[in-house]
Amino acid sequence: MTAVRSLSLRATMLLLGFVSGGIALMAALSYEDLKKYTVENSLMRIERAAKAAASLTEAHFPESFLVERKEKDLPTLIRLKGAESLVSRAEPSALDRLVKEIGRINNGAANVFAWNAATQAFDRFATTFRRPDGSMPPAFSIGAGHPAYESIRDSKVFMGDVPVMGRMRYAYLTPIVFSGGELAGVLAIDVGWSDDLVTGQERLKERIFLASLLIVAITITIGGLLHWRMLAPIPALARVAHRIGAGEQGVSVPGRGRGDEVGHLAEGLERTNQLYQELEILAFSDPLTGLGNRAHLRRELKRTFARESWTQVSALILINIDQFRGINEGFGASIGDRLLIEIGDRLKAFSGSYNPPPARTGSDEFALILRDCPPERLNYALDGLWDMLSRPLAFDGTIVEFTVGLGVVSLPVHASSADDAERNVQLALKAAKAKGKGNIAVFDPALDARARREHDLSIALREALQRNELAVHFQLQASTKTRDIFGLEALVRWPQGNGPMISPGEFIPIAEANGLIVELGSWVLDETCRIMRQWLDAAILVPHVSINVSPAQLWQPDFVETVQETLERHRIPPRMIYLEVTEGLFVNFSEDRIQSIFAGLRAVGVKIALDDFGTGYSSLGYLHRVHLDQIKIDRTFAVDIDRDRSKQRLLKGITALAAGLKLEVIVEGAETEAETRFLMRTGCDAIQGYFFARPCSALLVPQEIENVRRMLSLLNPEVEAPITKAKRSSG
Ligand code: C2E
Ligand code: MG
Ligand code: MG
After folding, report:
1. Are residues 432 and 478 in the same domain?
2. Are residues 639 and 503 in the same domain?
3. Residue nearest atom 27 in ligand 1 by C-alpha distance
4. pLDDT confidence of 6, banded at 50, 70, 90?
5. Among the atoms of ligand 1, which is closest to the Cα of residue 521?
6. CA separation (Å) from 480 to 354, 363, 469, 665?
7. Closest atom, ligand 1, to C-alpha of 668
8. Whether pTM exceeds 0.90
9. What percent of the chain has pLDDT over 70?
C-alpha cells in the first residue's frame, strides 16, 4: 500500500479513525453492560421463580412433597413422601391449580412432568399452557435430545434455555424423586420467552452498528467539507512553495487575504517569493546592461548540460572588447558605459527569445548561448553577430570605433560539462586575442593541450624557482654616441638540462598568470644585484643594468621598498639600475597610480624605461604625463629598417618625439649590419641586438664588452665595409 502523502487527508483519516473507534468502543461497552444486566436480571427472576415454585409445591402438598434446598435457598430436589407414583398421587385438578398459581406468581409458565420408565421420557401431565382457544395443548415429553434431559435424568437441577412450541424459554427444572431416590418426575418453571431477549439484544446490536455508521458518515461528510474548505489551499501552497524553491519566475501564491493560519502562510510565502525574485535579480543580473551576469551564464550552462540527451548542438560564444581601457580613457567612462550598454542591447536583439538571455561576464566581456546551432548554422550566426558588433557606436556626435575578439565552443562537441565549456571558451577567446584585434577563434583541442602544457610549466617553474635553478643572462647595449658600451639588459633564463630551452617569452606570461612573477621578479632583481656587486668588486665596469619588471610586481605595495632594500643590501648605486616596464601597464592601470609608483622609484634613484615601445597602446598621451627616462623601440621596427621607408619615417618621428621629451632612445633587435648601420644614423642613443651581442652568462660579460667595443671601433656608419667577419672571428 502506498503511503498517503496528503497531510489533510491523513489528518481526516486519523480523525475518522478516532471518532469511529471511540463510537465502536462506547457502543460495545454499553452493549456488554446491557447484556450483563439482562442476564443477571433473568437469573435473579428464574431463581426467585424456582424458590417460589418449590415453596408453593411444598405448601400445597405438605403430605406428598419435601423440598431439598442448598445455597441461596435454591431447590435442588423434591422428594416424594411414600411410594405412590406422582401421577396417581395428586389429583390432576389440584396439580393444575398448583401450576396455575406458580405461573401467576412467576409471570411465567409451570409444568409437572412424570418419569415414564417405559419410554425413558418425562411426560407432561400438568401445565399452565393453553391453546389460544383455551383447550389443553397436545401431549409433550422431555426425551433424549432435550437440553435438560441428561441433567434431570441424573436427578440434577437444570437451569437454562429450553425449546417450547418452537421457541426458547429460560427455565428451571427441579427433579422429583421417590424417597428411595428413584426418579419420579420434574417440576419445570420458566420466566418467559428468552429468545425475545436474544432478539432484543440482536436488534440493539444492529441499531448501535447503524447509529455508529450514521455518525461516521456524518462526521466524514461534515468534517470532510470543513476540512476541504479550510485546508484545500494547503496542497496548492505546498506546490507553489516547491516551484518558488525551484527558482521558477512569476509564480502567483493562492490563498492570500484569508485572516486565518492558511492566509498567514500564503502571505509569508508571497513575501519569500518577492524576496527570492529580488535576490534573483541581484544575484543573476548585471545592473549596467540589464543582461545576466556570470552566475547567470553558469546557471544557463548547467541547465544546458542537465538535459538528458543532446538532440541539438548549442554554441557558447565569449566576446571581449579589444582595448576597452583605451576607449574608456580616450572617450571617458560614460562613453565606455554607453558602449557596454549598446553591445548588451545588440546581443539581446541578436539572441532573441529562443536563446537564453546573454550575459556580461566581466568588465568588457559578454557571453552568448545559441541553441540549436550545428556547424553550418553556427557560421551563419557568427557572420550575423560579427556584422552586428562591427558597427561603430554613434553617440552625441561622437563616433566610437571598436573591435571585439570572439571565442567559440560548440556544445557538447567541445565540452562535456559547464566547467569545461567555460574553460574552453576562455581558451578560444585567448587564442582569438593572441591573433590580434578583431579576431575570432573556435575552440580546438590543441588549445587545450597548450593550456595543459602551461599548467605543467607553471608547476615546474615554481619548483625550479624553489631549487634556485634559474639564471640571469645579460645582453649588451651599444651606444651610438660614445661608441662604447651603453648598458646591459638582465634577462632571466630557465636551463633545462639537455632539453630545449624554454623562452622567457613563454614562461614569463605563465608566471604572470599564476602570480609567481612577484617571487621570480624579486629573485631576478636580487640575483642581478649580486652579480653587479661581484663586477664592482672585480672592477669590471658596466654603465648600468636594465631589469624587466612585470605589472604585478609593480602593484605590490612594498615594491619600492623591496628595490631599495635589495640595492642597499648589495651596495649597488641606484643610478646603475633601469627598471623596464611595458606599455601594457597603461592598459590596465590608472596613470595616477603609475605616477605615484614611479615617483617612489625615482626617489630611490633608479631610472625607468618603457620597453617594447610601439607594440601595444595607441594613445601616446601618457608619454607627456608619466615621467620616464628611456624608451626602448620594439624589435619589429628594426627589422628591415634599412629598406623599409615607412618604418624609417615612423622611427624618425619617434626619435624626434623622444628628443623633445628628453628621453633616451634604444632600438631593440638589430640583427644585421645594414640595420645596425642605418640605426646608428637615426639619432637613437643605443642599439641592442644580436648583431652586437646575444644574451650571455655573467661570466662571459667582460669578454662580450671587449667584443662590442671592437665592433664599434670598426663600424663606421658612413662606410659600407662589412665587419661581420671581424666580429665572428673574435667570438
Ligand atoms: P624584452 O624585455 O623586450 O627583451 C628583449 C628580448 O629580445 C630578449 O628575449 C632578447 O633575447 C631578444 N632580442 C634581443 N636582440 C634580439 C635580436 O636582434 N633579434 C631577436 N630575434 N631577438 C632579440 P628573451 O630573453 O627571450 O626575453 C623575452 C622577453 O621576456 C623579454 O623581452 C621580457 O619581456 C621578458 N623577460 C625576460 N626576462 C625577464 C625578467 O627577468 N622579468 C620579466 N618580467 N620579464 C622578463
Ligand atoms: Mg626588456
Ligand atoms: Mg623589449
Report:
1. no
2. yes
3. 504
4. low
5. 42
6. 66, 45, 36, 11
7. 15
8. no
9. 94
pLDDT per residue over 579-628, tens digit each?
A: 999 987 877 677 888 999 999 999 999 999 999 998 766 567 778 888 89
d(CA 712, CA 524) in angstroms, rounded, equals: 29
Beta-bridged to residue 367, according to DSSP, are 318, 359
For ligand 1, atom 2: residue with the closest CA: 548
**Stretch (H or E) spanning 336:** helix 333-351
350 with 262, same domain: the answer is: no
**Ligand 1 atom 7, closest CA:** 669
Phi, psi of 295 (to 5 degrees): -60, -40
Poorest-confidence range of 1-10, 619-628, 642-651?
1-10
Beta carbon of 273 within 6 Å of any ligand 1 atom: no
CA of 616 to the centre of ligand 3 (A): 12
- Residues flanking ion ligand 2, Cβ below 5 Å: 548, 580, 611
Q: Is the CB of 492 under 6 A from ligand 1?
A: yes
Cβ neighbours of residue 325 closer than 8 Å, sequence gap 6 or more: 586, 587, 588
Do 471 and 578 fall into the same domain?
yes
pLDDT tens-place string over residues 163-176: 887 788 889 999 99
Q: How far is the CA of 454 from the centre of ligand 3 (A)?
A: 22
CA–CA dist 682, 641 (Å, integer): 10
- Work out the number of other CB atoms within 10 angstroms of the CB of residue 124: 20
End-to-end CA separation in angstroms for the chain: 96
Range of the domain at 387: 287-443
Are the CB atoms for 256 and 270 separated by under 8 Å? yes
Strands (DSSP E) contained in 181-259 are: 183-193
Q: Count of H helices and E strands in the chain?
A: 25, 24
* C-alpha dihedral sign at 10, 15, 17, 18: positive
Q: Which ligand is nearest to the CA of 633?
A: 3
Cα of 637 vs its chain's centroid, Å: 56
Residue nearest to atom 28 of ligand 1 (CA): 505
Ligand 3 center to 457 CA (angstroms): 23
Q: Are 577 and 519 found together in one domain?
A: yes
Residue in 465, 473, 491, 641 to alter for ligand 1 test, most ligand atoms within 8 A of Cβ: 491
Does residue 109 lie within any of the structural domains?
Answer: yes
The rounded Cα 175 to chain-centroid distance in angstroms is 92
- Indicate whether residue 477 lines ligand 1 (CB < 6 A): no
| CA 481, chain centre distance (Å) | 70
Whether the CA torsion 412, 415, 421, 424 is positive or negative: it is: negative
Assess contact for 636 and 647: CB atoms under 8 A: no
- The rounded distance, in Å, linking the Cα atoms of 445 and 428 is 10
- How many A from CA of 701 to the centre of ligand 3? 20
Give domain status of residue 203, yes or no: no
CA of 485 relative to ligand 3 center, distance in Å = 18
Contact 411, 316 (CB under 8 A): yes
Q: CA 393 to CA 341: how far, in whole Å?
A: 11
